[in-house]
Write a structure and sequence with these properties.
309 residues; 10 helices; single chain; 82% helix
């Protein structure tokens, strides 16, 4: 049986709810899982019939952003520990860098606790729970309404637009290592992956191979992004040295060079794989555009009405 929107929302909300206890304890993995769960909820909310979904989507966006500041530091610290096991462990800068990043993480957690208290998160979960009930009631009362099927067509259009965005960002990034453009590619890969996952759960298509390919690219681009953030953090610590000491300054330069070398190795992997990403995106665009031909006018209207952000 094809799942309803209320079923999808209920399961995604359950995943988000399960992370909250870990977030309250300060568990690093829980922060990451809560952030991912909030993004998956946001992917579904625009496809719901209720007007109350829009403000909840804005609140979830704030949750994602707040968790992201903590997650960025949590992702950098394991990289420092990983490097500490190698030759760079003979230099003092890694120790100073770890202290600086840990302090930044503590500050980010303090800001998160001020802006997103436990009570706020629990209230958001309760409101999302009421939204599940509202959607389920609407689906039960009007099972044959145009929107009952149109949202799946809208989801197909969403996948098409996500795929087009990915193809565009890959083309704009080109073969040169430009961190900001590669960051946009990473975001486009992630958004297309979440849209495909939602399509699979909704019974539209089996996209396991495509999702795995996107996950591999996301991992490479994610590590590259984390290293770039580490480079920025290292330069900030280096610039704060007072008074500057030439041996320590040179040790920081050596660290940055090693990080940049790793980024370029990862970028070479990305360049070798981005042809496959482009083909994947173009295949999805062609597949979903071809499926538009048999749709009703109401379905096409719903398809065009979905905005991708």
């Amino acid at each position: 049986m094809t799942p309803l929107r209320s079923d999808l929302l209920r399961s995604r909300l359950a995943r988000f709810r399960r992370t909250l206890a870990g977030v309250e304890r300060g568990d690093e993995r829980a922060f990451h899982r809560a952030r991912v769960a909030s993004r998956r909820l946001r992917e579904l909310l625009p496809l719901l019939p209720s007007d109350s979904a829009r403000p909840l989507r804005r609140r979830l966006r704030k949750v994602t952003a707040g968790l992201g500041a903590v997650r960025d530091c949590d992702a950098i610290l394991p990289l420092i520990d990983e490097l500490s096991a190698g030759p760079a462990s003979r230099t003092n800068p890694l120790d100073h860098l770890r202290v600086a990043v840990a302090a930044a993480r503590d500050e980010a957690r303090a800001r998160l606790n001020e802006r997103l208290t436990t009570g706020n998160l629990r209230r958001l979960v309760r409101k999302l729970g009421r939204l599940v009930d509202d959607v389920a009631i609407a689906e039960a009362s009007k099972p044959a309404a145009p929107g009952a099927r149109g949202w799946r067509w809208a989801l197909d259009a969403r996948v098409t637009r996500r795929a087009a965005q990915l193809a565009d960002t890959i083309r704009e990034a080109g073969p040169v290592y430009l961190p900001e453009r590669l960051h946009k590619v990473r975001i486009a890969v992630r958004k297309l992956r979440y849209a495909l996952e939602l399509g699979g759960e909704a019974g539209r298509h089996t996209m396991g191979a495509e999702v795995r390919a996107l996950k591999r690219s996301q991992d490479v681009l994610g590590r590259m992004h984390d290293l770039q953030r580490l480079i920025d953090r290292t330069r900030a610590v280096q610039a704060s040295l007072a008074p500057p000491q030439l041996p320590v300054w040179r040790a920081y330069d050596t660290l940055v060079t090693s990080f940049e070398d790793e980024c370029r190795r990862l970028h070479a992997r990305y360049v070798r794989a981005n042809g496959g990403l482009t083909v994947l995106a173009e295949t999805l665009i062609a597949r979903h555009k071809g499926s538009d031909r048999g749709r009703t006018g109401a379905g096409l209207f719903l398809t065009r009405a979905v905005r991708v952000r």
